[in-house]
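Tokens as discussed.
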């Protein structure tokens, strides 16, 4: 049985949060920007390109994409945070985006997926930013002006503040028996304040 189809037409600026323009729930009418973003966060997307002047449809996306749930869960667990340098959004809010596109660029797997927040996913897709993936998991983001910024993969090693080894011999200051030199144990005779 086919699932019901709900179509929402929403501008890129509304999706990225740079505009509060309403979206259109087809067959119903306008909906506010926050509702549109909420619906989009867990939706299957199909891209439609329109002419902003005439409103005519120029291209209808022929592919849709959503990674299988186990793979999405793996990428979410692996990345933890958006892979854009300096972004601190948790993966729970993220889109998963393929590093490579098209049939010649490999199958969908954890090695060609990264987690991005909605803003940085759309930035990469529509604003001439590019991402280079390195075998060690680093990502190099290249801005439209050519500047490069590196995103390191999430490090699962535990944060440790090493405790002293309690079984190791401890050095205790002591007086030299022959010279009597040792820590000063004399007290001030003056009452406080000194």
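Sequence:
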């Amino acid at each position: 049985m086919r699932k019901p189809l709900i179509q929402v037409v929403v501008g890129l600026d509304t999706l990225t949060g740079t505009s509060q323009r309403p979206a259109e729930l087809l067959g119903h009418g306008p909906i506010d920007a926050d509702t549109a973003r909420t619906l989009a966060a867990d939706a299957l997307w199909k891209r439609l390109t329109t002419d902003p002047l005439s409103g005519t449809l120029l291209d209808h996306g022929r592919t849709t994409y959503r990674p299988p749930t186990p793979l999405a869960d793996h990428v979410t667990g692996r990345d933890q945070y958006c892979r854009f340098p300096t972004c601190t959004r948790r993966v729970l809010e993220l889109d998963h985006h393929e590093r490579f596109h098209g049939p010649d660029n490999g199958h969908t797997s954890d090695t060609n997926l990264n987690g991005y927040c909605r803003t940085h996913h759309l930035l990469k897709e529509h604003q001439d930013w590019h991402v280079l993936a390195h075998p060690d998991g680093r990502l190099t983001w290249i801005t439209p002006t050519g500047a490069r910024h590196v995103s390191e993969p999430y490090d699962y090693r535990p944060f440790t503040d090493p405790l002293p080894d309690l079984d190791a011999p401890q050095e205790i200051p002591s007086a030299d028996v022959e010279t009597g030199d040792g820590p000063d144990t004399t007290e001030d005779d003056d009452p406080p304040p000194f």
